[in-house]
User: What shape does this take?
Amino acid sequence: MRIRASVAVVTGALALSALAVPAAQADVSAPSAAAKAATVTPFGTAAPADDVTEGDIKIKKVTVNGGKNIVVGTTQKKTFTISVTATDPSGIHDGMAMLWHGPDFEHVDGAIVPETEEGDCTNSSATTATCKVTVVADPKANIYGNVLAGTWKVWVGAIAKDGDLIIREAYKTAKVQRASKLTVNASPEPVKKGKTITVTGKLTRANWDTGRYAGYAGQSVKLQYRKKGSDTYTTLKTIKGDSTGYLKTTTTASADGYYRFSFAGTTTTPAVNATGDFVDVR
Assistant: This one.
């Protein structure tokens, strides 16, 4: 099954075109397969967007980006796969998937659609196959603004060799997040044991509206310490950044070691740890 899609930005909102699905190839045994396949157009004006099940085909599993959140910065494209595992007594002809954002199918404001026209299907048995499609989140195209950060829905469909069809417009959800950065600086270096160490840093994240990184305001961040020779960080305290994401706190020097800030993440922004800054205590 081939699937085409195009996405255009019109007056600040996504205008989604119909996904054209050509006739099924000759190896599909049932005469009705091509007609049924033509309904697999989630944003088409003629085809319904509701869930569809025709026949005994089933979707067994859908995995987005290997189960990890999709983290997008300000310039680099993020390429990932969506895997659709389906089963039918006649075998699986094709599977397809995409991500969409919005309250419902009538009010879609974003879509991440397949990069290629065909899914790459691998049979695990005569009845079951896993089909993978490649999609690209592009901060200069389909990730056009901060409003798109957070939860997206996963549209999936599959076609059996006998023409059976299944569509799920929101089979599951996936997170598309604004990339984060975190810095740290501990001073003075070196410092006498028992003296005060001042630790500063900044939490920033990708701003898809401006194409730059900006401070993430008012977020709780942990100050952590790892003694020289240890592999484990322990939390000393939790502080909040200011309106620009700037962080500042103090602690008491005890022994040689590394200080870092650690951010747990939010729905729209991934967790991040600063690279530890070593302080020589004398």
